[in-house]
Amino acid sequence: MKSCLAHGFPFVINISVFASFGNGGKSGVVPMPTQTDLVHGATGGHALLVCGYSEESQAFIVRNSWGEDWGEKGYCYIPYDYITSPTFCHEAYAIRKVENDDFGQDNWCWQDSENYLANMPEHNPDHHAIERFEIEEEEASANFRQFMEETQEDMREQMQEMREDMPEQMRDMQEG
C-alpha cells in the first residue's frame, strides 16, 4: 500500500467503523478498535481515500468525505495495522487515472518529523499497540500484484454471476 502511494497512486478503502472512529472527528487520529469496540462490533462501514503515509506515526494519511470541520481539515491518521487488516479493511482500489490530477500542495508536508498519533487527546488502556515493521520494495510490489490479481478475479466472478442472473433477452443484447 505504501508502495502504491510512493508511486503517486492514492487508493480508496472500505473499512469497518467502530465507536472509537468518532475520536478522529475531534483529534484527527483514528485509533485501532478497542476491546470494547470489538465486543460491540462495527457500527457500519465507510469509504475513505488514503493519500499518504507517515513512517514517524506508523499511520496512513486519509481524506474523509465529511468536510473540513471533521478531523484535521477533513483528514485523519489511521494506523497501518487498521488499514492492512483484512478484518477491518474489506476493499482497496488504487486510483491510477483521473481527468484532472492537479491536487495542489496545500496540505503537503515534505518533512516526516511529526508523530500525528501523539496528538491523541486521551490515553486508552485497551488500545492496541502499533508495531513498527519493515517491508522491502520487492515484497510490497509482489503483495500489491497479488492483491490486484485477486481483486480482478473476484470482479470477474461477480460479473459472471451478474450475467447469469440477467434475463436472457438482456444477455443477448449485451453479447450482440
Helix and strand arrangement:
Layout: H1 2-6, E1 11-17, H2 23-27, H3 35-40, E2 44-54, E3 59-63, E4 75-79, H4 80-83, E5 89-94, H5 137-165, H6 168-175
Antiparallel strand pairs: 1-2, 1-5, 2-3, 3-4
Describe, in short, the structure shown:
The protein is α+β, with helices and mostly antiparallel strands and 176 residues long. Helix content is 32%, strand content 19%. The relative contact order is 0.18.
Describe the structure.
It is a single chain. The protein has helices spanning 2-6, 23-27, 35-40, 80-83, 137-165, 168-175; strands at residues 11-17, 44-54, 59-63, 75-79, 89-94. The protein contains six helices and five strands; from the N terminus they run αβααβββαβαα. It has a five-stranded antiparallel sheet. Strand 2 (44-54) and strand 3 form a beta hairpin. The protein is globular and about 60 Å long. Mean pLDDT is 80; it is low at 125-130. The chain is of the alpha+beta class. It folds into two domains: 2-133, Cathepsin B, Chain A (Alpha-Beta Complex); 134-176. The longest helix has 29 residues, at 137-165.
